[in-house]
Design goal:
- By secondary structure, the protein is α/β, with parallel strands linked by helices.
- 25% of the residues lie in helices and 18% in strands.
- Mean pLDDT is 75; it is low at 1-17 and 164-174.
């Protein structure tokens, strides 16, 4: 489940976010006579995704025109026409775009705008190299070597005579003292093995 989540995050990081800039044409004066639109545009960079915002009074409107109509201030064949006092025009392709005010005499008085639109520069994302999660190598539990309980050294005891009762604990249980230790030792080793394997 974690692997698909990682892929989703990486794919989102690889997609650059592109935000357009709104350029208010003419600055605080807006789309109006007396503004030097060539000077206003000269210090700005226009890229695909940006917008031109035209704000103007009722005596104006905006026409997008061809380069030749821009040069001659002709509004007879506009590409697009805008009116209403405020318009936002998206810059959606590279190259030069041309605008003018079609009201009589306004274009020849300087109410026209030309901007060159560049491609949006997006940083080239570095493609992360996908890594395969390492699978832990299973380890085989080490098997402890069973140890046999050490046999205590034999004591030098004189052989018991039938008349003298033996007081040795081994003899008291019928000579099975060493056997009991062996059984207990084997049980401990067996329990240890079961703990490792369980």
């Amino acid at each position: 489940m974690a692997f698909p989540s990682v892929l989703l995050v990486l794919s989102l990081l690889a997609v650059p976010a592109v935000y357009g800039v709104d350029h208010t044409v003419g600055g605080s004066s807006g789309w109006d006579q007396g503004v030097n639109f060539a000077s206003w545009a000269a210090g700005k960079k226009f890229v695909v995704g940006d917008n031109l915002v035209f704000s103007y009074g009722s005596s104006h409107s905006v026409d997008e025109v061809s380069q030749s109509d821009y040069s001659t201030c002709s509004a007879s064949k506009p590409i697009n026409s805008y009116s209403g006092g405020k318009n936002t025009v998206a810059l959606n392709k590279t190259g030069s775009v041309y605008f003018l005010c079609p009201s009589s005499g306004h274009c020849t008085a300087g109410m026209k705008l030309s901007v060159t639109v560049a491609a949006a520069s997006t940083p080239t994302p570095s493609t992360p190299t996908p890594t395969t999660p390492s699978t832990p190598t299973p380890t085989t539990p080490s098997t402890p070597t069973p140890t046999t309980p050490s046999t205590p050294p034999k004591e030098d005891t004189p052989p018991s005579s039938p008349d003298t009762p033996s007081t040795s604990p081994s003899a008291a249980v019928g000579g099975f003292g060493d056997m009991n230790k062996l059984v207990v030792g084997v049980c401990i080793v067996f329990a240890g093995l079961m703990g490792f394997m369980g």
